[in-house]
Amino acid sequence: xxxxxxxxxxxxxxxxxxxxxxxxxxxxxxxxxxxxxxxxxxxxxxxxxxxxxxxxxxxxxxxxxxxxxxxxxxxxxxxxxxxxxxxxxxxxxxxxxxxxxxxxxxxxxxxxxxxxxxxxxxxxxxxxxxxxxxxxxxxxxxxxxxxxxxxxxxxxxxxxxxxxxxxxxxxxxxxxxxxxxxxxxxxxxxxxxxxxxxxxxxxxxxxxxxxxxxxxxxxxxxxxxxxxxxxxxxxxxxxxxxxxxxxxxxxxxxxxxxxxxxxxxxxxxxxxxxxxxxxxxxxxxxxxxxxxxxxxxxxxxxxxxxxxxxxxxxxxxxxxxxxxxxxxxxxxxxxxxxxxxxxxxxxxxxxxxxxxxxxxxxxxxxxxxxxxxxxxxxxxxxxxxxxxxxxxxxxxxxxxxxxxxxxxxxxxxxxxxxxxxxxxxxxxxxxxxxxxxxxxxxxxxxxxxxxxxxxxx
Length: 457
Ligand SMILES: [Zn+2]
Ligand SMILES: [Zn+2]
Ligand SMILES: [Zn+2]
Fold this sequence. Notes:
By secondary structure, the protein is α/β, with parallel strands linked by helices. The protein has helices at 13-36, 38-67, 98-109, 122-133, 174-184, 202-211, 228-232, 236-240, 258-261, 298-306, 359-366, 392-402, 405-411, 414-421, 423-433, and strands at residues 70-78, 82-83, 86-87, 113-116, 137-139, 145-147, 152-160, 166-171, 215-218, 249-251, 271-273, 288-293, 312-319, 377-381, 439-440, 449-450. The strands form four sheets. Strands 1, 4, 5, 6, 7, 8, 9, 12, 13 and 14 form a ten-stranded mixed sheet that branches. The protein has a two-stranded antiparallel ribbon with strand order 2-3. It has a two-stranded parallel ribbon with strand order 10-11.
């Protein structure tokens, strides 16, 4: 019979007495046990309280962190034209200095976070260190540097590996960039210049980046000019092998969007960044990302690109692919830009075979089973100066009246825009926000443009 469950029937008296004895014995045993293990129990009791309070505190902490997630606008691919009075990116504007970028470029555009991809240039790194010494920049505990205007500077290095494609290493601290320089110095011709060809393979760059606490990103991944999918491989899985697991994020590039990238099934594993790849101040922020972070630091961005702890790349804001310079295949022979069904791999007019592949045509050429899941939103944007009717003077007036370019493009009421810029400009911006602008496609190195409304000059 089961101990502790006495029988109630009088016909089972013996069983009842036996069970009663069993119960009494059990209670006595329990009392003795209580006495003997009392000190242990006290310890356990406090441990339990401690565990509960730890759980309670961590819950509050987690909820607090969750609640505190805010949206930040970030452009993580900007070049530097000059530093220390010398050229860094030869093809970039002389006005594009670290100081101008942080004081004018980012605040005018409304960007909270700027990634400089020439930070491993000795000239740029020296300049940033001098700014830290002057108190104009301050290293943030989680990585990155904060300017006096509150813009977070993220340090990056774009390199061209042996594979002939461009990749970006993002690193947390000035000390980590110095260490990356030690890796790069014996492998490049001139450490002062931007986007150097390095005598190393992509896997070595990934390993070096991760060892230094950074994250790695294929740059403008779909462009035929130095993009990983554009000029190197059909599948990153083939090129990177088991190192693919170390890559969380891809940069789409100006001529690609989420829909195009999603035609390649393996991109399901990546988050997407849309950055400007600016070579001049006006082009800073022509593409940007909205990040959900708990404050501005490298560590927070690293969580967002990995999609961890609630941090995320919430949305991409990019130029319509048709606006990009390499959207469709173009012919160097006769100048024709492809119009037919993609992929166009031979000139449709003169039959020339050595065409410059368009991004759309290249994606169609290598596509496989498309990604079916829901992706982060991609919003089509047109830089304010490409909106018909917006010249430099009106641009200044709009910024003075509304605050920043992102404010004009995203948040300002169309009524407020109309008051400053008139009905036509407000109407273009309204259509852009709903993705209803018609675009004349670019190609062959020329940007596309917004189709003007009938009757507009
Ligand atoms: Zn590049
Ligand atoms: Zn670049
Ligand atoms: Zn042709």
